[in-house]
Write a structure and sequence with these properties.
The protein is built from four helices and no strands. It is mainly α. It has a domain of 70 residues. The protein is flat.
Length: 115
């Protein structure tokens, strides 16, 4: 059997059209069911909240994804995040932060904190 024959677009497109809804439905049932089971196991006994349904579980998962990110895909930061800072610039930055945060009153000056 020749495997190249099955890599043609007229085999792939119908397979995707049939399999994509099946995988999407399977994903909704598995992830929504997992969230539903965890919610119904923990929150009603602990906080006396009501139980949720399967679709509410999936909706909660989607809402958390929108609000907090997740599902992998790499983080933000882009190219600048991985940029190396020269040691001299880093030392100047650290010194400026130390000057701001660890500032002590100069000799002869009283603290301005009123007690």
């Amino acid at each position: 059997m020749n495997i190249k024959r099955f890599k043609k677009w007229y085999y792939i497109v119908p397979a995707v059209l049939v399999l994509a809804p099946i995988f999407i439905t399977l994903f909704v049932f598995l992830t929504g069911g997992l969230v539903m089971l965890l919610w119904n196991w923990l929150l009603p006994p602990l906080f006396d909240w009501r139980q949720i349904t399967l679709l509410q579980g999936f909706g909660l998962l989607v809402l958390c994804r929108i609000l907090f990110g997740g599902f992998g895909g790499g983080g933000g930061g882009g190219k600048d995040f991985e940029r190396k800072i020269p040691p001299e610039e880093k030392e100047r930055f650290v010194q400026r932060i130390r000057d701001r945060v660890c500032r002590t009153p100069a000799d002869g000056q009283e603290s301005t904190n009123a007690e």
